[in-house]
Design brief:
Layout lengths: L11 E3 L10 H9 L4 H11 L9 E2 L5 E4 L3 E5 L8 E6 L4 E2 L8 E7 L2 E2 L8 E6 L5 E6 L6 E11 L2 E10 L3 E11 L6 E8 L3 E6 L7 E5 L2 H7 L14 E2 L3 E9 L5 E7 L4 E7 L7 E11 L3 E13 L3 H6 L6
């Protein structure tokens, strides 16, 4: 399979021309740095000992990959299925984190109001371990598509996973979207999205059932246009999203009802145009990031990054301190 080196200076580049850069690159670089506070870094290092060897994936016999960061154990793409992280256990507490459909895997793939199949998690993949212990994955759908989709899964620290996506357009891709899905264990029943509440300002808003079944917070009015362009009307399983207030930053979390663990998914504002979830207690126990959302001309590539962070003992203000300083 072909390989790529993620460079945050190259959000989008013509094939064969890595020097191409898009507007807003410096902000993206800062956002993707996602610097933690000193106390959070200290906590991670104590828990995982900061051993780089522990932040490597290792090949498993079934075609997937195992990991043990010193804090989190589990599998990536177990059995060769493109389900992201599964069987994840937080070792200090023994709490299971990931449900059967896994964490941080691309689900729906759209170009405009066209959906490519039912979901990328059902596509075949090829993968390999990189020199630094990350895993590079390439999706191979059972039908022809006008793009190549690949990603690199890499541990940033013992409780933080980065996923770096690249899509190569073989023909024009209008408002291309990677709908990134994470499905948590039942204890993580309470979803919160970081929005600009009209009454209380920036807040982590609980996805209460009274708001609707499927809830989505857009980045801005342009994002609303994308959400309503017909892409979610495709059968099977169309979704009628109820819109929440606009995002402050593309961040959502789920809190465990049986411990002080919190699972956070995030991306840069430049790369993520919506965050979504079902209501609290709904049995998907999921969070979703709508990544990219812009045109990718034929022959060019677009790149984007998302992050999963597992933290403990964090209130809302602590979570905010874990977020990027600049978007």
């Amino acid at each position: 399979m072909s390989s790529f080196q993620y460079d945050p200076r190259q959000k989008r580049c013509p094939r064969g021309n890595p020097a191409f850069q898009t507007q807003g690159v410096s902000a993206l670089c800062a956002a993707l740095a996602l610097c933690l506070t000193a106390s959070a870094i200290a906590e991670d290092r104590q828990a995982g000992d900061g051993d780089a060897e522990m932040l490597r994936f290792t090949a498993a016999d079934d075609g997937g990959y195992a990991f043990d960061t010193g804090v989190l154990t589990g599998r990536l793409n177990a059995g060769g299925r493109a389900l992201g992280l599964t069987g994840v256990v937080h070792q200090p507490t023994g709490r299971r984190l990931a449900a059967g459909l896994g964490l941080m895997h691309p689900y729906r793939i759209f170009s405009g109001n066209q959906r490519f199949g039912d979901g990328a998690r059902d596509w075949n993949t090829t993968s390999t371990i990189t020199a630094d212990g990350a895993v590079q994955v390439r999706w191979e759908p059972p039908f022809e598509v006008p793009f190549v989709l690949q990603a690199v899964y890499r541990w940033h620290d013992p409780t933080t996973l980065d996923v770096l996506f690249e899509v190569q357009a073989n023909e024009e891709l209008a408002t291309f979207e990677i709908f990134l899905a994470s499905y948590f264990e039942a204890g993580f029943a309470d979803p919160y999205v970081y929005v600009q509440d009209p009454e209380h300002g920036p807040t982590f808003l609980l996805g209460e059932r009274a708001r609707g079944h499927w809830l989505m917070a857009p980045r801005d009015e342009g994002a609303v246009t994308l959400i309503r362009d017909g892409r979610w009307e495709t059968h099977p399983h169309p979704v009628d999203w109820v819109l929440l207030p606009p995002l402050v930053q593309p961040v959502a979390l789920r809190r465990d009802r049986h411990s002080d663990l919190v699972a956070i998914v995030m991306a840069s504002r430049a790369d993520c145009f919506a965050v979504s979830t079902p209501f609290a207690g709904e049995t998907h126990y999921s969070l979703y990031l709508s990544l990219l959302g812009h045109d990718v001309p034929a022959g060019e590539r677009a790149r984007t990054q998302a992050r999963l962070k597992i933290a403990s003992g964090r209130d809302d203000q602590d979570v905010i301190r874990l977020l990027p300083q600049t978007l």
